[in-house]
């Protein structure tokens, strides 16, 4: 097997949530460039723009509008996709953050973060995992965070959800490894996205963060593409339950 074929995703279908922008959109482009057909899932207007961009590049792509916070309705929508398509790769990328001291965070805000960041990945993993288990192959990639390992500052709900997504990754990996399914996570460092805009806008906080990053720069969404293609491809067939940190050296310091 050649190096190129090991990383090829030709003939495979990938579902990517949060694909309208930021990391999700970059990962969708990367998977498409490796040959995958895409089903993009999200709720904002930029989702169709992302699908149009991929189609213009020659990729096969569908877009499905879904509110990942509406967990009571989500399983039915995802089951419909799973019944219509053989999904080989699931990328649970959608995520939200609510900043503020935990004593000031409302219960509704707490539940919304946990719904999108944790409950939705579990629901999607169940919807598409059934088909993967029946076929004896599949890849699930969850998006964790540096705050899967640290507490952060004024982001208790986000940190709790990202700690839990690593636990879910390991639990499903343990259950499904013997059936040919690999479940892994990517933990991005400080990446230029809408979620980090308040940090980058704060000169003092941004400088503190950059001083801690050995690479000396904020990451870009495209910095995560190689990790995603690896975990989605045959190259990672004996890798499961792992959280791959892509952080410019933050955790090493």
Polypeptide structure, described:
The protein has a single domain (3-244), classed as 3-Layer(aba) Sandwich (Rossmann fold), CATH 3.40.50. It contains nine helices and seven strands, in the order αβαβαβαβαβαβαααβ. The chain has helices at residues 3-6, 22-33, 46-56, 71-84, 107-135, 156-176, 197-201, 203-212, 225-232, and strands spanning 13-17, 37-42, 61-65, 89-92, 138-143, 181-188, 243-246. The chain has a seven-stranded parallel beta sheet, sandwiched between helices.
Key terms for this structure?
9 helices; globular; alpha/beta; 45% helix; seven-stranded parallel beta sheet; 7 strands; 253 residues; Rossmann fold; single chain
Short description:
This protein has 253 residues and is α/β, with parallel strands linked by helices. It has helices at residues 3-6, 22-33, 46-56, 71-84, 107-135, 156-176, 197-201, 203-212, 225-232, and strands at residues 13-17, 37-42, 61-65, 89-92, 138-143, 181-188, 243-246.
CATH H-level superfamily title: NAD(P)-binding Rossmann-like Domain
Number of helices: 9
Strand content: 15-25%
For the record, the CATH class is Alpha Beta
Which segments are poorly predicted (pLDDT under 50) over 5 or more consecutive residues? none
Count of discrete structural domains: 1
> Major sheet: size, sense and barrel closure?
7 strands, parallel
The CATH topology name reads Rossmann fold
Average pLDDT, all residues: 96
CATH architecture: 3-Layer(aba) Sandwich
* Shape estimate: globular
Q: What would you call the quaternary organization?
A: single chain
Per DSSP E runs of 2 or more residues, the count of β-strands stands at 7
Would you tell me the structural class of the helices and strands? alpha/beta
Fraction of residues in helices? 40-55%
**Distance between termini?**
37 Å
Radius of gyration: 17 Å
Spatial strand arrangement across the major sheet: 3-2-1-4-5-6-7
SSE arrangement, N to C: HEHEHEHEHEHEHHHE
């Amino acid at each position: 097997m050649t190096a190129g074929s090991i990383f090829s995703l030709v003939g495979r279908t990938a579902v990517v949530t949060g694909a309208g922008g930021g990391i999700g959109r970059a990962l969708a482009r990367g998977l498409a460039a490796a040959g995958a057909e895409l089903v993009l899932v999200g709720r904002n207007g930029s989702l169709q723009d992302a699908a149009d961009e991929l189609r213009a590049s020659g990729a096969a792509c569908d877009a499905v509008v879904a509110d990942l916070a509406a967990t009571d309705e989500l399983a039915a929508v995802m089951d419909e996709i799973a019944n219509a398509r053989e999904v080989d790769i699931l990328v649970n990328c959608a995520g939200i953050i609510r900043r503020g001291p935990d004593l000031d965070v409302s219960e509704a805000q707490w539940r919304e973060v946990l719904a999108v960041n944790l409950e939705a990945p579990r629901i999607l993993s169940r919807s598409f995992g059934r088909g993967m288990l029946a076929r004896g192959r599949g890849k699930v990639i969850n998006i964790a965070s540096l705050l899967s390992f640290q507490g952060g500052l004024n982001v208790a709900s986000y940190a709790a959800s990202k700690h839990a997504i690593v636990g879910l990754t390991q639990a499903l990996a343990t259950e499904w490894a013997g059936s040919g399914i690999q479940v892994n996570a990517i933990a991005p460092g400080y990446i230029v996205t809408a979620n980090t805009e308040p940090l980058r806008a704060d000169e003092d906080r941004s400088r503190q963060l950059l001083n801690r990053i050995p690479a000396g720069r904020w990451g870009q969404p495209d910095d995560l593409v190689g990790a995603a293609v690896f975990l989605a491809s045959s190259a990672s067939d004996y890798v499961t339950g792992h959280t791959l940190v892509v952080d410019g050296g933050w955790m090493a310091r």
